Amino acid sequence: MIEIPEFIIPLIPWIRGVVGLVLVGAIFLGAMGAVWLERKLSADIQFRYGPSRVGKFGLLQLVADAIKLFTKEDMRPRNADRLLFDNAPIFMMSSVFLMLVAIPVGAVFINGVEYPLAVTEMDISVLYIEAMSAITIFGIFMIAYGSNNKYSLLGAFRNFARMVGYEVPLGITVVSVAIMTGSLNIVEIASAQGLLWNIFLQPIGFIVFFIALMADMGRLPFDQNESEEELVAGWITEYTGMRFGLGFFAEYIHMILGSFLVALLFLGGWNVPAFVANNPVLGLIAPTGFFLLKTVLVLMTIIGMRWAVPRFRIDQVVDLSWKRLLPLSLLNLVWAVGLGLYLGA
């Protein structure tokens, strides 16, 4: 058993926060990894040169992309609203930072006691994350309106329609998980699952949450706001160089955060069998490693969906939300209330 000095114990929340902050920085590197993973898989599936051939495993393609973004001419359309156009990427990245501080990226077990790795722990962290995620839509509208381009504006309004429709079932599903657990704290929700994951207790809720999350992130088949066949590139049409790069990067970090949420809310988080948690060495590394493995698998599933499902029309997207997912989410809510009462939550 590891003996912790007495003076260290009051500092454990601070140490945990610092470690969580370091891991948040690592997530930005993870976003680069997600970009490489998507380009690599896409190139392999489509037999394209570039991401599958440049450097060992295509790693140098990222360097080539970065050079292209940094050296591309920075253009601004005539009559663009400069204040909105210039500051929108900062707004989008702020949403990402605000979400990151509340999402735990793993946990360590010392003498069988769990210490989540999060910058901060809130009693209403689930609602906080949902609220901060919604800020992105303002950044997208700032880009579209500030660009003075009708295709960009049309893409932003499509984004509004999609997010309004899918935030409702997404929020109801999250509330269903919170009701069954009896807490809005995402750390407590992850810890409460043990080895009986919420995906088994609420399978309908998991399906609704995953589809709504894909739509919320704007991933195929829900990328109507930037469908190149109809809108050139939608809300991001007029962005070039690093402005485009920042918006692009924010979307990938959102994808990673979405994968974290799936692992935390439905796939058991970092929970491991008791004999692993009580082991002095495995308890330090296995829970976080297990959690990150689940996150990567979810991320690969999201990336793979891009090449497995065709893009929906905007009317099909709206119908799927209001006529299918919303009733299913309400049904799951009733089930969660009943199950929560039975389990004594």
Describe how the helices and strands are arranged.
Elements: H1 12-46, H2 60-71, H3 82-100, E1 107-110, E2 113-116, H4 125-134, H5 136-147, H6 150-181, H7 186-192, H8 198-201, H9 203-217, H10 228-231, H11 241-265, H12 274-277, H13 282-305, H14 314-343
Antiparallel strand pairs: 1-2
Organism: Methanosarcina acetivorans
GO molecular function, one term: reduced coenzyme F420 dehydrogenase activity
InterPro entries: F420H2_dehydrogenase_H, NADH_UbQ_OxRdtase_su1/FPO, NADH_UbQ_OxRdtase_su1_CS
Structure commentary:
It catalyses: methanophenazine + reduced coenzyme F420-(gamma-L-Glu)(n) = dihydromethanophenazine + oxidized coenzyme F420-(gamma-L-Glu)(n) + H(+). There is one protein chain. The mean pLDDT is 81. It is built from 14 helices and 2 strands. It has helices at residues 12-46, 60-71, 82-100, 125-134, 136-147, 150-181, 186-192, 198-201, 203-217, 228-231, 241-265, 274-277, 282-305, 314-343; strands at 107-110, 113-116. A hairpin with a 2-residue loop joins β1 and β2. Helices cover 68% and strands 2% of the residues.
Give the gist of this structure.
This protein is mostly helical and 345 residues long. Helix content is 68%, strand content 2%.
* Contiguous uncertain segments of 5+ residues: none
Main beta sheet strand tally, sense and closure: 2 strands, antiparallel
Strand fraction equals under 5%
Number of domains: 1
| Overall morphology | globular
> How big is the Rg?
21 Å
Kindly, what is the distance between the CA atoms of the first and last residues, rounded to a whole number of angstroms?
A: 33 Å
Strand numbers in spatial order across the main sheet: 1-2
Strand and helix order: HHHEEHHHHHHHHHHH
Mean pLDDT: 81
Count of individual beta strands: 2
Briefly note the structural class of the backbone: mainly alpha
